[in-house]
Amino acid sequence: MAPYSEGERVGRGIALALLVIPVGVVVWTLLWQIGFIASIVSWGVAIAAIWLYRRGSKARVTPAAAGGIIAIVVVTVVLSLLAGMFTDLVSAIQVPLQDAITDPKVWGLFVDNLLSNGEMWQAYLPQVLIALVFAFLGCFTTLRRVSRESRA
Asked: Which terminus of the chain has fewer CB atoms gathered within 10 Å of its CB, N or C?
């Protein structure tokens, strides 16, 4: 078997680390629904993404991978916040989640609210800011350690 080039290993590692996104979104959303600020999930996402990256790449974290891991954490946090807002909308309009996920009308209402409902954003702003601050704090040390490792 031919050895992998550095780029191929980074790609394989990042591809495997991407698996953490849906898991992180689901866990965050479940915690959100019980009223818990789910910052611990972002820390877990960072740890899991690094672990999966190392398994997929069979190498230490490189500078290219550090950026990818940071992007995975950021994407997971953003998608998680949107998923939490979506489940709040579904609860408010009293539609079962499994039906709402496939209902274009519910998605249309969600997008309309995201784009034009200033009152909704005012209501969510404190939650979003707290979630983002705790997400940053929750994974800062992990990502800093990865950044140091990538420069070694």
From this structure: N
- Integer angstrom CA distances of residue 121 from 28, 115, 124, 127: 19, 9, 5, 10
Hey, what are 33's tokens?
A: 């629904």
Task: Single out the residue of 20, 117, 125 nearest to residue 77, CA to CA.
Answer: 20
Dihedral (C-alpha) 131, 135, 137, 139: value to the nearest 10 degrees? 170
CA angle 18, 126, 30 (to 5 degrees): 45
Per residue in 122-148, pLDDT tens?
888 887 887 778 777 767 777 777 767
**pTM of the entire predicted model:** 0.81
Q: Which amino acid is at 130?
A: I
**Rounded-to-integer distance, Cα 25 and Cα 70, Å:** 16
**Under 8 Å between Cβ of 69 and 143:** yes
d(CA 97, CA 101): 6
Write down the residue that tokens 């479940």 correspond to: 30
